[in-house]
Amino acid sequence: MRVRLRPSPLAVAMTAFVVALGVTGTVVTAHVVDRQDATLLRDDTAQGVDYLSSIIGQVESGLLAMGAVATYSDDPAAFVSKAHQVASGITAAVLRRTGDGYVVSAAETGPLLAPGQVIDPAQAEAIASAGATVVATPVVQRGAQTQVGFALGPPATPPGTAVYEVALEPHYLPPGAVQGFSELAVALYAAPHPRSDALVLATTRELPVTGTTVHQQFRVGASTWVLVASARHPLSGTLAHAIPWLILGLAVLIGVGTGLVVELLARRNRFATAVVERRTAELQRTVRTLQEAQRALVQSERLAAVGEMASVIGHELRNPLGAVMNALFLVRNGLDDAHAAALDRHLSLAERETEKAATLVDDLRNFVRPRAPQHETVAVAEVLQEVLQATPAPAGVDVQTDVEGVTLAADRHQLAEVLTNLVSNAYEAMADGGILRVSACIEADEVYITVQDTGPGIAGEALERIFEPFFTTKPSGTGLGLAVVRRIVDAHGGDVRVDSTPGAGTSAQVVLPARVAVGAR
Amino acid sequence: MSIRVLVVEDEDDLRTSVASLLEAAGYEVREAADGDAALRILDDNGVTVMILDIRMPRRDGIAVLDALEKPPAVVLVSAHRIDDELRTRVGPKVYQFLHKPVPPRQLLEAVAGAASHRRAP
After folding, report:
1. Residue A198 carries which DSSP code?
2. A57 touches chain B (CB under 8 A)
3. CB–CB of A319 and B79 under 8 A?
4. Residue B23 maps to which CATH number?
5. Residue of A435, A372, A445, A424 whose CA lies nearest to A402
6. What are phi and psi of B7, to 5 degrees?
7. Residues ≥6 apart with Cβ < 8 Å to A357
8. CB contact under 8 A, B16 and A323
């Protein structure tokens, strides 16, 4: 069976269907995981903001405490003491208002401010707006550090003063340095929107923060700050992110597997169908052969029965025929001339008819009791010459032969009988003249002998029956000639067929094995 | 002296007609309806030619030939095909084989041939 490389449409469809299901599952799962990630990022960011807000709250309460000390005591030492208490390590100061600006009063702690220092006008402007609610002053970038400040003003402080707290922090903090941000890359800006000059701190060196980011604004006193965050790694877990790809991979595997199985089944099915069709055809051929064999058997049995009956009748007719022939002979010889002349016509008819009957019983004997062929090497040319001599051509018939050099193993007498019958038939078909062609050739161990006439031919219906015993188209035929031919040819393991074109002539062809077949006598 | 011909044939009409034919041709004819009768006639008669049918009741033609050491000139007549085996076996004792029905002229020619064959040696 030829191997088909093109897969069946069903297998392709099944594979495509399963893979499509997998792709859909992958997309949906990826979407769910992304949404989960976004939710987690928002939650983490909100927690970070809460944490920052609580720090701001502590800054505010520290400032309030320092403001209260400044309000109720002029002693700078008391302020410094309080400042150390509420905001250890931070530079804090009481500022005194001078015109548009502020000057650090004696009460100060930390290295960033010194007594008498005039506050930067941009800071001063922000400090001036401070009241009981804490105000963040504009951040100042100092190299890798950011200076942030917070201030409170009256009524939380004495009139004409402000409490100012300032810190210089590195704006890069390693991940984990800030509680709650370990899984996030964050950047905090002292502005409503990310602006590099407003950067307070970041847990990443790669700014601005990229990827899926969350911007969360929150209030710092009167200002609005923004925290920008993105996830350092999948918040829902690496496994969750791998699941869509796992699904896709599985789907492709299952799809291809399904396709292969379907293809395999389809091929098996095709193969089985082909086998069944082949077997069915073989069976049909066998049945036809058997039917033909049965028909042939029935036919040959019918012929055998006909022949047997004919044999019995023919045999029983021999003696009466002989007696009648003798009697007729005696009558003719016993008549005187006068009577002979008067009765000649009738006597001749009786003699003719008894001779015909005698010929019939002779033919019957040949037909019914065929001799087993006695094989010898026979030259077709020799046998044909004898036959043509014994059966002279009628007037007007031209005889052409082409049989030289063809020899075969056959029964010489039976081959002569075959040729005699075929040649006689041809002659009788050409009563008005014509051409008899006899040719022989040898091909692949078979000898083909063809006897052809230019007579009127045989119509199809009669052509089908010419081998039947007693079937004849001739007024004086016994109908046994071709039946005998077939008997003899069959006994030689050969074949005979007759083709005819009405109006153009008839051709009889005998095919005989050139050598005695194995197993033949 | 006329030539004596023995006609051995079980079918009466045929035998009679053959006898008539031969008598008309000038032969002296003896008739036998079966093999036993034929052997009896052959015992004490100078038969030159015997027309012998093969198939007969009781003793058939072949048995007659087998029983004879020196048969007359025999024209063996059969309704059946005479196969090669039989032809070989009885050939030396038979002048001529003929198939029934035998045309009268052929029969007369055979008898004449047999008679001259018998007288010649």
Report:
1. G
2. no
3. yes
4. 3.40.50.2300
5. A435
6. -105, 115
7. A317, A321
8. yes
The burial of A274, by beta-carbon neighbours within 10 Å (0-12 exposed, 13-18 middle, 19 or more buried), is given as exposed
Q: Do B83 and A371 touch (CB under 8 A)?
A: yes
Residue with structure tokens 């089908």?
A: A464
Are the beta carbons of B24 and A333 separated by less than 8 Å?
yes
Does the interface ipTM go beyond 0.95?
A: no
Q: Output the pLDDT for position B120.
A: 55
- For B110, the token pair is 């055979």
Considering its fold, how many domains does chain B have in total? 1
Measuring CA to CA, which residue among B98, A328, B62, A332 is closest to residue B113? B98
The Cα–Cα gap between A315 and A303 comes to 17
0.90 exceeded by the pTM?
no
Q: Do the Cβ atoms of B102 and A365 come closer than 8 Å? A: no
Indicate the class that CATH gives domain A371-513. alpha beta
Report the side by side order of strands in the sheet with A135-142: A101-109, A91-98, A161-170, A145-152, A135-142
pLDDT tens digits for range A463-489: 888 887 777 777 666 777 888 888 889
Pick among A313, A318, A330 to test the B interface (most B CBs inside 10 A): A318
Distance CA A154, CA A359 (A): 162
CB A482 within 8 A of CB A467: yes
| Domain map (residue ranges) of chain A | 9-231, 371-513
- pLDDT, tens digit, 9 for 90 and up, residues B87-109: 888 888 888 888 888 888 889 99
Single-letter amino acid code for the residue at A85: Q
Percent of chain A with pLDDT over 90: 14
Supply the DSSP string of chain B, one letter for each residue. -PPEEEEE-S-HHHHHHHHHHHHHTT-EEEEESSHHHHHHHHHHS---EEEEES--SSS-HHHHHHH-SS--EEEEEESS---HHHHHHHGGG-SEEEESSPPHHHHHHHHHHHHHHHH--
